[in-house]
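Colleagues,

Please find the record for the two-part complex below.
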Amino acid sequence: MSGTFAPAPGRAPMRTVLSSQIRMELVLTARRGEAVVLAMGVPLLVLLGAGLTKVTNVPGDDRLAFVVPGVLALTVMSTAFTGQAITTGYERSYGVLKRLGASPLSRSGLLFAKTAAVLGLIVLQLLALALVGVAVGWRPHFGQILPALGITVLATAAYSGLALLLASVLRPETTTAAATLIYVLMLAAGGIMFAAPDLGTFGWFVLPLAAHAEALRDTLSHDTSIPLSIWLSLALWAVVFVTAAARRFKWE
Amino acid sequence: MNAIDVRGLRKSYRGTEVVRGIDLEVARGEVFALLGPNGAGKTTTTEILEGHRRRDGGDASVLGADPATAGPQWRARIGIVLQDADDAADLTVAEMVRHIAGFYPDPRPAAEVIELVGLTAKSKSRIRSLSGGQRRRLDVALGIVGRPELLFLDEPTTGFDPQARRQFWDLIRELAAEGTTILLTTHYLEEAAVLADRLAVLADGRIVAEGTPATLGGRAAEAAKVSWRDNGVLRTEQVDDPTELLRKLVATDADLRSLTVTRPTLEDIYLELIGGDK
């Protein structure tokens, strides 16, 4: 067995496989950079509109302290859920995923790589929006930055899981419509531009966006800790949808 | 041990049985062609063996494992050239090949694979800008980049121009010579005849004939048709062995400039097989 063609099978180490896939996801994201920038348009408009003018009633005196963390949470949902669901839905219909399925990349490996890549993108988007917020007068605290990041990772995993689940069970056109509808509903009811409906602790479990926004307000705007119910809510969302996505995910 | 061992394979879609009890044995190092018209069950059979589809019944062993449950380690030992991958990826050819190569421990160098499939000039082009035939060649490149022990080729040359097809055949022969087992599906008879050590004809979910390109469907045993002109009149005779007849003809003063001896071509046999009683 020698020569260029001698079969030499086996699998590259898991870490190499994953980092290769994450790199590809990021390159693909960069190639559609204009879509990524456009996706930040809505959060930016909300930030400037609701943050600087009195178009809506927000709780408290400090509009920016309410609006900016909400916009950050909205961006996480927009990228990890809406963008992810639409992209993956079309990737499936174009056969990109089938091609990956023909390779030794495992299903959970692909889900992990997609979530990790989306997390990287989200960090950049949040930095950009936070800088805009600071530029117009938001004064964040950094004492609780770690819990803020932790809850954001949970939210990203939950949204990403839900996105991949939708993209697996629906056709791409339906996925696009559903993801957009959920985005708009959450934008309205998620406590971003005005207070979320007061449902008590129950509310944190049915409105993950509102829970995440509240957690970011508590930590970044008010320098307090995140309520246990919010941790529980987002952890539950993450576990349920990541598990469901791993089970139902289809390569084609 | 065979590379592929299949017994009584069955698969239905919504109550319609498309694979109806297929037996298949492919030895290691063999090039095996599954031949049949569209809808015969070739792709479904291949996809079950690749682990992409569940079977409803029967036993299947591919490289010693059940494809329905085998994991990524097993997947790294097979190569798949998809029939209908049509991604609009924004990656370039070289990026895609390099990326997939990264999943294997000892891949072929990307540039070498791209050269092998004749895409060097396109290596920096985005995949979405490729023509249909060029995409197929990229699929082939992605299927062989990991140096698979067993390669599945599902209608690999659809959309190739004649020159690209010849190049591809050379590539397959080279892979086979190095010991790669190849399962090829095609509806090009010529391709199966040129490449395959053995082939099976699939019609309506069943294997209707199996053999080598020379013997398929009793081709070697079929009667030969001898034609010649006798005083300007065309004469034809069917004989099992034309030797005696030819000896007799040479001894007469028949005009043998127009003599032909024909056996049914692979295509005649094939059409007869898939046509059934039509």
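Chain B has three domains: 1-77+148-221+265-278, 88-145, 223-262.

Comments are welcome before we finalize the supplementary table.
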